[in-house]
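Tutorial, part two.
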Amino acid sequence: MIAAMQTPAESLRVYWRPGCSSCVRVKEFLSKLGVDYESINVSAKPEAMEELREMGVRTVPVVARGTEYVFAQELADVSTFIGRKVDFKRLAAPELVDRWLTVLQAAARLVMQLPAEKLEQRATPGRDRSIKALAYHIWQVPDAFLQCAIDGNEQIAIVYNEPVPSNVKTVADIRAYGAGIEKRLRSWWAAQTDKSCSGTLRTYYGDQPLHHVLERCTWHSAQHTRQIISVLEGFGIRPDGPLTQRDYAGLPMPEGLWE
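Running the prediction step on this input gives:
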């Protein structure tokens, strides 16, 4: 990303929570552009969510200036909001799908290594998200993407933030859910006649190029798989076939892991 049109830094607020991949990414994005902002952790400051609700917002990350705001799921929208022109380099759609499937296959192996007695422990520092919820969330991302692309469900964030169903109790249950989602993703891709993904999806954060949403969801699953690798290593467990820098190459992932 190359910043152009250097303009004075605006007084911005960034609403975020720990463990949120897009939150980590937008904070790093602004910092690299040299843009000052007020960092508001809604997990540490619950009243901040009321501020967002007053603006009609129910999810983070959000970048705000006064009463104006932009959802930060797509950095191109953020760059427009702050008045910076940024050149985004994106992998082609077929490469993104290949990477996404690689990520999901790795996640299926890694999740099976999670100790059963640890699943209800907190995974994310500073946030009430269990290890089980974090693992399940890896496949909630493609589930939300497919519901949007196939069924027209704009509320992607609601889908991938839904609580883990009560009948999902074990890593085998999580893997079974993931296998079903991966099968559906492969079927969706096989049915695409336009492999460049030049179309548009309607999402809660606006009409977005399908290619951009595909990219976002690919690196989103990769970031959470990276977190599961960290969880395993924290337990002294050697990850079985972890993702490598080659798998991550070209994906616009944040450098930070949790916040």
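The beta strands are 3-4, 12-16, 37-41, 62-65, 68-71, 85-86, 200-203, 206-209. In part three we will examine how such features are distributed along the chain.
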